[in-house]
Amino acid sequence: MIRLPTAASAANAPRLSNHLLASTALLTAVLAALSAAPAQAQTPQALPAVPVETETAPAATAPEKGLSRPLGTGTLDASEIASRKIASPDAAALLRSLPGVSLYSAGGFSSLPALNGLADDRVRVQVDGMPMTAACANHMNAPLSYADPAVIGAIEAIAGVTPVSRGGDSIAGTVSVTSKPAVYAQPGEPIHGEGSLSTVYRSNGNGTTLSGTATAATERFSLRYSGAWSRADDYEDGNGDKVRSTLYNVQNHALSASARKDGHEITLSGGYQYSPYSGFANQRMDMTLNRGTTLNGRYKGEYDWGTLDGRAFWQRTVHAMNFLHDKGGADRGGMPMNTDSHEMGYAVSAEVPLSAQDTLRVGNELVRYRIDDWWPPVAGAAMMSPLTFVNLNDARRDRLGTFAEWEKRWTPAWTSLLGVRNDVVWMENGPVQPYSWADPIRTGMMGMGMGMANPDAAAATAFNRGDRSKTDVNVDATALLRFAPSASERYELGFARKTRSPNLYERFAWGTGGMSSTMIGWYGDANGYVGNPDLKPETAYTVGATAAWQDAEAKRWSVKLTPYYSHVENFIDADRIGTLSNGFVQLRFANHTAALYGINAEGRSIVHQDERLGEFTVGAVVSYVRGRNLDTGRNLYHIMPLNGTIDFGHRLGDWSSVLEFQMVGRKSLVDSGRNEPETPSYALVNLRTSYVWGNLRADVGIENLFDAHYYLPLGGVDYGDFRASGNQQPIGALAGMGRSFNLGLTMAF
């Protein structure tokens, strides 16, 4: 990559060091005092090996974890994940059944989750405790693309009011994905070995997934490998038409080593992802390479004063974009775009029972992120030469966060939680460079001698002369109150002040040309986006309540209702600043005031149960959200319409099945400023069944049983078909996948 002269970027180092020392001093003192007591010897119970996961009826309620897990939290355990993973290799797709969760379409294995209408960077996504940042101007390498469904042990999604201990620098909530826990040998067993091999075939798109795990363990030590490879061609919609630029190819590998003794456990893990290509139907570009390497270390220890949890992590991502064949290919150079990022940091927290009624949680974390984003010149293309386009030059985003949280059980019925958090965010970008400094007129467009204005040259000059560093000091606070008058009912009221600083592209994407601006944006609308260095952090004030009812034993039935309202100051929206060719528009990120409100509802019940016929269950999830820009009066972009899912389950011994009805209302409340397309309502029927013979499990599923044709409300526009038509046909919404017969086979050993 070309390196431009940079100012002394180390200016932030003293400030970072001072803040780090100041914010960790109190935490260090507390932990030092507490850890002075001798460790309480605890001999953990050996975990039995479970050869094959069987699907069971979901529990009526999630296990209690105090107010650190609000009542509205959506959860998926290993058995539910095992039954759903045959539908897609996309880990984010597993979240679709959780209340308040919707998905931005973004590649076959890299959807972007939205919580209560707020998506992407507004959601804190953690994979085994690591915060992961998309290293791409189009967010093609989304955090959940690194989590393979085959090795996920559990998923939690907290939408709305989120405890400060569960994350900062986010206003929507937290999605936490954890791998299956380490398996150890039984007492007296010399060496325990186990593993599994799985294969899945999906007829629509001719998709295939191969995955496997292998574990060797003693009572104290466990070593595990897991790997998965998935590929597919372009899928077909319900009319049998191919949806272009939806193919993908990806593999993930992970190796972890765990050791435990007397209530203490250390885990070291490393991961590697390689994807040679992935099509993006709603983007102008496709992904032509992604290499991601991660290292993650965790310590968790039980002391007589409480629990200490520490983690250190490192990640590097090498990423490239260009055109795959559906968009013209890159035979003559295309338009190469490259990124190289590094992310590292640590997180340490402690949970201290101060008394039988009081629990204190404190923590500190540091995340340091670096990224270069450059676009090499293309020989013979006057618009993309003779220089390298430097978009982000040694760009930095560092965040230091500290929190304290107090939970108190006042009476058996009343519990409260109060928390406060501070996050300091430092951001900086080095000098940038356009393809050409010719200003204001450059000639020789495509060798035809046509003159054209070069706004990127003037924009780069202005950007380099301006302030290219920002510091935000953000404060979060959360208050929760729970009332549980009996075992059958619980009520919760919460308030949160949550903040998020802009990402690097929202602040520092400087190109104002039609071509350069359309390379920026993760919304799938093919419009052009320009950054704004003067953006302020978003601040969301959210109030939410949950009412939960269940049978006294929490086994037969449960119902939850969660209404919420969020008022967001300095909401980062986009203002139209120009019109591009073919009806697309150019927008600049800008702060506004916004409001979102809605309700999530879920219920589940066992309707019949006996030894002869088995167990019959019914469950339902319904979500509604409405979002408006209060300054402009426009609807917020990519808001999911009213939607719901009803499932009928059956389990008899080792045989389990589910019939699922997915319903989505008409999307008519769209953002006219971005030419967001409307989509009609639709209903899908999905069927899945599985059977276990000893160590062998078979899964059969039919997604979109009746081959319905529908359009994805958050799918953006079908730019792949538009490009294939020579930019002639009117661009429309992206069609969803038609019927797919899915077969899966898992053998455990």
TrEMBL record:
Residues 1-41 form the signal peptide. Its main location: membrane. Gene3D superfamilies: TonB-dependent receptor, beta-barrel domain (2.40.170.20), TonB-dependent receptor, plug domain (2.170.130.10). SUPFAM superfamilies: Porins. Transmembrane segments: none annotated. InterPro entries: Beta-barrel_TonB (IPR000531), Beta-barrel_TonB_sf (IPR036942), Plug_dom (IPR012910), Plug_dom_sf (IPR037066), TonB-dep_rcpt-like (IPR039426), TonB_rcpt_CS (IPR010917). Pfam families: Plug (PF07715), TonB_dep_Rec_b-barrel (PF00593). Residues 245-705 form the TonB-dependent receptor-like beta-barrel domain. Residues 54-64 have a biased composition (Low complexity). It is found in: Cell outer membrane. Residues 54-74 are annotated as: Disordered. A motif (TonB C-terminal box) lies at residues 732-749. Residues 77-174 form the TonB-dependent receptor plug domain. It is a multi-pass membrane protein. It comes from the Bacteria. Keywords: Cell outer membrane, Membrane, Receptor, Signal, TonB box, Transmembrane, Transmembrane beta strand, Transport. Belongs to the TonB-dependent receptor family. This is TonB-dependent receptor. The lineage of its organism: Bacteria, Pseudomonadati, Pseudomonadota, Alphaproteobacteria, Rhodospirillales.
